[in-house]
Specification:
Blueprint (H helix, E strand, L loop, with lengths): L1 H27 L10 H29 L5 H19 L2 H25 L4 H37 L1 H23 L7 H29 L17 H7 L5 H21 L20
């Protein structure tokens, strides 16, 4: 359990970190020369977003510890696991992410250009632009951080803080490497391929988590448990430990539905939108007919 859990956490943290880097790159694009000073408020906003993410973590831990007075450990684990599955389903929803690239990143880029365009020689427009860029930097990081905090609560309760720390540390390490290549060396990385690869890997993580969650809901009495003895010879114990595949109608059905939802969202999104990652680093995503 510790090794698969740390790997799953690292994958999600890296995926969310990659998205954060792309949004920040879109904001700081073309901030050179006279505009270079406006990079500072974006950094300040991202730092505040990091602090807010840590505060949200401590708040979530306190709330769940308080819930322990009214609910059993199994019920709390089932609840947090369900929350993590919802977060991962959102991350894996291809239609949502196509809209995300076309909307969220473009919105930040347009807002940045509007702020810089309105910043004149007087103090007040400059001050307004400064605080506006702080907000953009904050939302770019905190949005991803908030999702990660929600996702990690179930793993914290099941596997412990040490496993979570290993996973988060590994994910942040790879995120830091990509950030350094993007902002320090100005490398043009294959972001689209990286997003697709992490998306495929997270698809496997999703199926594992759905199987775990369905079993926990059975243990908590939230779901019935209809065992399938005929499948028992084909589902050895290691499949349950590593892939959360159990000879149960409820767990297998839940995993099948999750797979259908992810594949269905991809099929629905593909003909309508496309992620365009070419051109300079940080260029906003565009819709393509």
């Amino acid at each position: 359990m510790p090794a698969p859990a740390s790997l799953n956490i690292a994958l999600l943290v890296f995926r969310e970190g990659l998205e954060c880097i792309l949004v920040l790159a879109a904001i700081t694009a073309n901030m050179s020369g006279a505009r270079q000073a406006y990079r500072r408020p974006v950094v300040v906003g991202a730092f505040v977003g990091t602090v807010a993410t840590l505060a949200t973590w401590h708040l979530a831990v306190a709330v769940l510890n308080d819930l322990g007075n009214d609910f059993t450990a199994l019920q709390i684990q089932a609840f947090t696991g369900l929350l993590a599955v919802v977060v991962l389903l959102l991350v894996m929803n291809w239609f949502f992410h196509n809209v995300y690239w076309a909307g969220w990143i473009s919105l930040h880029s347009r807002k940045k250009e509007a702020l810089l365009r309105d910043a004149g020689t007087r103090a007040s427009p400059r001050r307004a632009a400064w605080w506006g860029l702080v907000v953009l930097g904050f939302t770019s990081l905190y949005r991803e951080g908030f999702e990660v905090v929600l996702f990690l609560q179930g793993y914290r309760l099941r596997a412990g803080n040490e496993v979570v720390a290993y996973g988060v540390g590994t994910g942040l390490l790879f995120t830091g490497v990509v950030a350094a290549l993007t902002f320090v060396t100005h490398r043009h990385l294959p972001y689209r391929k990286m997003l697709v690869l992490t998306g495929v890997l997270l698809g496997g993580v999703l199926l594992v988590m759905v199987g775990e969650q369905a079993q926990e809901m059975q243990l908590a009495g939230w779901l019935p448990n209809h065992e399938l003895p005929s499948l028992a010879p084909y589902t050895p114990e290691w499949l349950g430990i590593w892939l959360s595949v159990f000879p149960s109608a409820e767990t297998l059905t839940a995993q099948a539905l999750a797979a259908m939802l992810v594949i269905g969202s991809y099929v629905a999104a593909r003909p309508r939108t496309a992620i365009r990652m070419g051109g300079p680093i940080g260029r906003p995503a565009r819709l393509k007919s």
